[in-house]
Amino acid sequence: MLTFAIAQQSRMDKLKNSFFQAYFRMPVPRLVVRTNFPEYTIMEVNNSYLETTGALKENILNQSLINLFCNPGEVTPERIKLEEALTNSLQTNEQINIEEFEISSLNDEADPVAWWQVELMPVAEEAEQPAYLIVTTRNITRHILSQKELHDAHHREQTLHEELAATNEELFATNEELSKTVESLKESQESLVTLNKELEQRVMRRAAELFKVQTDLIAQHQLLDTIVNEVPAGICVMEGPEMKMKTINNALLELWNRDESIIGLPLLEILPEIKTQAFPEILAEVYRTGIAYSRFEAEAELVIDGVKQKFYRDYSYTPIKDAEGNTHSILSLSIDVTERAIARLREQELMEEQSAINEELAAANEELATTNEELAATNEELNESRDHLQQLIREKESAEAKLELAIEAAGLGSWHIDPITKDLHYNAVLARLYGYEGQTPMTYDQAIGQITEEHRELVVKDIEQAIKDGGLYDVSFTQNRFDNGEVIWLRSVGRISKDELGKYTIFSGVVMDITEQKKDEQRKNDFIGMVSHELKTPLTSLNAYAQVLQAKAVKNEDTFGVSALGKVTDQVKKMTTLINGFLNISRLESGKIQLNKQHFNLDQLVKEYIEDAQILSTHHKIIFEPCAPVKVFADKDKIGSVISNLISNAIKYSPSGADIEILCDIKDDVAQISVKDHGMGVPAKDLPRLFDRFYRVESEAMHLISGFGIGLYLSAEIVQHHNGKIWAESEPGKGSVFHFSLPV
Ligand code: ADP
């Protein structure tokens, strides 16, 4: 503390104290301030301060120290520092130093910030409160700045050092990493080489696999192709809104009867007939919406080869889409189910029919109920009718009994043969006729066994024929009686009739004794034979005389006599032939016909008879188609008469001028002669009876042609006696062919 010696002086006086003045005027910037808190008003300022700060004395005096040193109004740490120091100095009355004070209120533009060392020294009377403060300042800015710079430099150096160390460390680390990286790079390179090799191998394997996959794919494609083509379903793909045919399998082509030329054509061009059917609209819908469509048993009408046909098919339309999901084609798949559909339709029809029937049945049921009532009524009537019927049956039985009686009375035997078992039933008359007295009933075989050998075969054949064809059975035959062996003539007439099932089961008939009749016929035959024989003798002498007379007339050149006697001879010849016919009949009937068999050439014989006939008839040309010479063993005259008869009939029943053709044929040990004419012919109904005795066709034309109906009968008998056959074919108005054959 600066203690002033002159205590009694006023304050200003004190300041004007020479000592103080000396002190104050020292070349150190100093200020004197009053201790009036809080202003600390500046009372004096020395020159050094003014020089150092460049301030004007009048601006500083009476100013607040605080406001001079600090920016007025701002509470800064420097202001607080200053105020504290001031307060402290006043309280302690001691000198207080502020070592470093940043002064900011100096208007030095070159050096806006300056640091001062500020020394605050209170000036007081002894034991009194200080009244002044001497404020001494020293500019330490340069020192502070250099110190700051030094510090900054130090700091920078340190930071640099640290950064360097850090960088170094990083570098080291990086280096290590690099060397590691290099190593791993090396390793990587090696593994890359290995990898490369492996990759190459893999690529090769993959290529091989791919090749195999490709081959498989081709095979699969072919397989798919085959499947698509062989599958019994129609498959096709149609493209674009026009449905252009893109792919189509064989099954569908076959169904449509088209070929691959339709590929690329729009569907409606291929099948215009479906325009009016549902398919085009459905296809358009599937194409538009991309939603698949399928149907069972769809009916389609297609025109195949110009013919409209109905098909039933299960089919589906599936859209085929691109990556964006837009439909570009449609896959159509269809299977023919026509049979199934027809069967189902038929079933449906049947069911409908069934239900119709059911309804009808219901109706019928009602009717039945009514009918039932009616039936009850009818039943009563029936009861009456039954009584009536029983009456009738009784009558019928009595009628049958009467018939039986009549049959017996007429001397007729009656018989019944079961066509299958040949069980025989007969009446008493038959047993009597047969002379059968056996204990057990006569069997069919027993009855047949009694027929004489010459007729047995024929009878059996006729019975079999009647059973087979259901025709009439009428046969005459001789048989030995069972009791005395006497030969009797019997005629059996029967018919096989159908039972209620329509089967021929009832074969029955009657048998009568015609022995007397036959004997009468025999007598007649004998008479004809005798008469014919007696007629022949005068005819022979007539013929002889006529010939003698003719020879004489020739000698006398009597031409009339020659021709008249020639006609007589011809007529005699005709008459002889007629008489011979009758004679032959009687001989035949009495079984006296005899065959004088010899070997001769049949073709030669035919030729001779043709020549004879040609001489007699000049109005017909007889053409002979000769065959290879054929030898037969037969009665030459009788076979001759057969040939002659057939030729003369052909002439007789043909208009004059019509040709007659005669053919000769040898086949399988049989010689066959055929005589063909272009005459009137024979109606079909007469053909089977032409060879019967005395049978002549009934017609107007026939009345003009004379004849007895014995020629064909005799011819047939002769041929049959030679084990040959004779038959005729004819077409009325066109002509006939008569054939006969002989075993060679
Ligand atoms: P006829 O000639 O004496 O009447 P046939 O026994 O020779 O007797 O002939 C029997 C019948 O067969 C004849 O009446 C005739 O109706 C018919 N007939 C035979 N041959 C022929 C023929 N060639 N053409 C047409 N009818 C024939």
UniProtKB/TrEMBL annotation:
UniProt cross-references to InterPro entries, sorted A to Z: BphY/WalK/GraS-like (IPR050351), HATPase_C_sf (IPR036890), HATPase_dom (IPR003594), His_kinase_dom (IPR005467), HisK_dim/P_dom (IPR003661), HisK_dim/P_sf (IPR036097), PAC (IPR001610), PAS (IPR000014)
GO cellular component: plasma membrane
EC code: 2.7.13.3
Membrane found in the keyword field: yes
Coiled coil regions in record: 161-202, 347-409
NCBIfam families noted in UniProt: sensory_box
Protein name: histidine kinase
